[in-house]
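Researcher: Quick test of sequence recovery. Tokens follow.
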């Protein structure tokens, strides 16, 4: 870090930076201690000095902070800017982060509007379901809207059956199967085809994993598949299940001799 006897042209003190960027001196000192926003140089008198590149970095930091990122997360997201290409890379990364946050907030807004509409119509709010919807929005489950159709027994079961990691793993498997269905439909494969039967088997294994073999849950899951979807993600999923997976499962059960209602029921 360079040192100067006096403040050179183009440099600002911590107070000037704080005023320019609308933050407190204490906040800048904290960022300095945390090693995420340090001065470019220090004067002989010990004054911290910042230049225009520091202002750009501080803007990065404040933007990420406003989006709810923690200090540790910001440390990993900040990019050192000392060339035009690195400036482009930093701005590109920041735009991606912001767009992702916009997507999450848009989904949250949609869920809130739906809940507001329901509360207006029935003059009550199911806060248990509301909390679950918020959690699923947070982990990126785009089918969060179906939670409102869960009964209390199903919600309690999901709480006991899955933690965040296992829920994410299950959602990933489910999304992969839906992608396979999309590919099969676009390729013109029939539900009764070899490809359709492979998908049906994978889907049934996923259902068995979800229920842990308790087939008394099937009626509730069937109701979910036929529930009215308020958002495009759920509608798309329901169309794929109703149009391809249901007949594929019917053929799979008939060909393999599997009777879903004879599975274990504990």
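Model:
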């Amino acid at each position: 870090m360079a040192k100067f006897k006096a403040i050179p042209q183009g440099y600002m003190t911590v107070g000037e930076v704080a005023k320019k960027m609308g933050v407190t001196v204490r906040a800048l000192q904290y960022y300095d201690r945390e090693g995420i926003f340090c001065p470019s140089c220090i004067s002989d008198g010990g004054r911290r000095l910042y230049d225009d590149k520091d202002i750009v970095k501080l803007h990065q930091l404040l933007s990420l902070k406003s989006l709810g990122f923690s200090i540790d997360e910001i440390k990993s997201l900040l990019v050192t800017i000392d060339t035009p290409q690195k400036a482009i890379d930093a701005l590109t990364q920041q735009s991606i982060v912001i767009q992702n946050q916009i997507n999450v907030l848009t989904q949250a807004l949609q869920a809130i509007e739906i809940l507001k509409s329901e509360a207006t119509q029935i003059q009550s709010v199911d806060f248990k379901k509301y909390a679950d919807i918020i959690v699923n929005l947070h982990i990126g489950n785009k089918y969060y809207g179906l939670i409102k159709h869960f009964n209390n027994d199903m919600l309690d079961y999901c709480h006991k059956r899955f933690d965040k990691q296992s829920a994410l793993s299950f959602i990933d498997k489910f999304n992969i199967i839906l992608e396979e269905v999309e590919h099969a439909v676009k390729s013109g494969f029939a539900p009764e085809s070899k490809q359709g039967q492979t998908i049906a088997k994978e889907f049934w294994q996923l259902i068995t994993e979800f229920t842990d073999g308790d087939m008394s849950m099937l009626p509730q899951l069937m109701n979910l598949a036929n529930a009215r979807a308020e958002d495009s993600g759920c509608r798309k999923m329901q169309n794929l299940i109703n149009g391809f997976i249901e007949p594929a499962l019917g053929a799979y059960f008939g060909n393999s001799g599997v009777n879903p209602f004879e599975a274990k029921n504990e």
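The longest strand covers residues 2-4.
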